[in-house]
Fold these 2 entries.
Entry 1:
Amino acid sequence: MDCKETQRCISLFLEEKMDRRTEQKFVEHVRSCRECMEELTIEYLFNIAIERLENAEVFDVEKELEEKLNRAVNRKKVHCQLKAGFFVVASMIMCVLLLF
Ligand SMILES: [Zn+2]
C-alpha cells in the first residue's frame, strides 16, 4: 500500500468499514510512514473532536487512536511516530476548540 492509497483509506479505517486484509496493510503502512500517521491523527482528531465536543467529554486523542490501531493489528507497543505526529497536531486541538 502506498501513501496515496493509505491516505485515501483513512476515513474507511476510522469508520471501521475496511476489510481485514486491507486494514492490516493500512496499519502496517501508517506505523512505518510518518506522513500518513500524521494524516491519520489529524483526521481522527477532527472526527472525534466534533463528536466529543457535542457531548462535552474529555478525551485523549493519542491514547484512543493508539488503541484503535492496536485493535486492528493487536500490537501493544506505542509507536514513537505517533507521539511525534501527535505533537505536531496538538495545536490543532486548540484550533478545533476555538472553532466550535
Ligand atoms: Zn505513507
Note: The mean pLDDT is 81.
Entry 2:
Amino acid sequence: MIREEDIQKIITVFKDNSSFDFSEYSDKSFKRRIEKILIDEGVSLDRLVKKISKDAKYLNHIKNRITVNTTELFRDSDMWISLYKPLKKYLKHKNAVNIWHAGVSSGEELYSMRIYLEGIGYNGVAHSVGTDISDKIIEVAKKGIYKNNIIANYIDNYNLVKDGLSDVENFKDITHYLISNTKTNLLEVKSEYKKNNDFQILNLINSDYNFDNKFDVIMCRNVLIYFNLDLQNKIIERFHKLLNSNGLLILGAHESIMPPLSNKFENNNNIYTKL
Ligand SMILES: C[S@@+](CC[C@H](N)C(=O)[O-])C[C@H]1O[C@@H](n2cnc3c(N)ncnc32)[C@H](O)[C@@H]1O
C-alpha cells in the first residue's frame, strides 16, 4: 500500500525534473498506476523516485507508463451510431472539416473517424490532428500499423456501427480500409486515411494549445476521467474556445460536463454541441 505522502514524492520529483505536473490527476487512478508500476518495475518507491530524478530517459519511460493508453478501433459503437445525425447535419454545407483527437493514444480513434467520414459519404477535405502526452504512443499513431490480432478484437465494434447505420449508409467491409500483410501479421491503415493527418505531442494540462485554426469536432474520450474535476473544467473551457460555433465536443462514455459549464453546450448522448 502506498501512502498519500508517497504520491506527493512522485508528483514532486516530476515537477522538479520536468514539465510534467501530475498534481491534478485524480488521486485514485494515479495511486493505482503507481502501485502497478512499482510491481512491474520491481522497485521500492524511494528507488523509483531516485531513478526518476537521476535519469531523464527513465523519467520519460515512467511518464509514459503513468498514462493509460488502452484504445480500440471504433471504441464504443453506440457513440458512433449516435454521432451520425449531428455530424451529418453539421457537415452538410462544409467542404472541409477540422478534427482534433485530444489523447489520441495509438491512433485507432483518429483512423476510425477517417473511415467513418468516408462511410457516411463525406466528400470534403478532412484534416485531423492527433495529440497525446506520450511521445512513444504518438510514433505508433503516425505509422497506423497494428498487429492483426489487436485489430481482430475490434472488428465487432466496426460491424456494430456498420449494421447500426445500414438503413442510412452503406459502410464497406473493414478489409476495404486496411492493408493486410500476412507474412508479418500486421495490418496497415490505407494511405488515403493518413493524408492530412498531423500528430503532435501535447500535454493537455499545459494551457498553451497553439493551433492555427479552430476545430469543427474535438474528440477527447477516456482522458478527462484521469483528471480531477477542476482540471476537467479548465480543459473543457479551452475546448469550448477552440470549437467553431455549433462544433461538436465528444467525450467518453463515463465522462460528462457539469453545470454551469454544461450551459454552454447542448448534450445529446455525450455529443456536446457548442451553443
Ligand atoms: C485511455 S487512452 C484513450 C485513447 C482514446 N481517446 C480512446 O478513447 O480510445 C488515454 C490517452 O490520454 C493520454 N493522456 C493522459 N494524460 C494526458 C495529458 N495530460 N495530456 C495529453 N494526453 C494525455 C494518454 O497518453 C493516453 O494515450
Note: The chain has two domains: 4-66, 77-274.
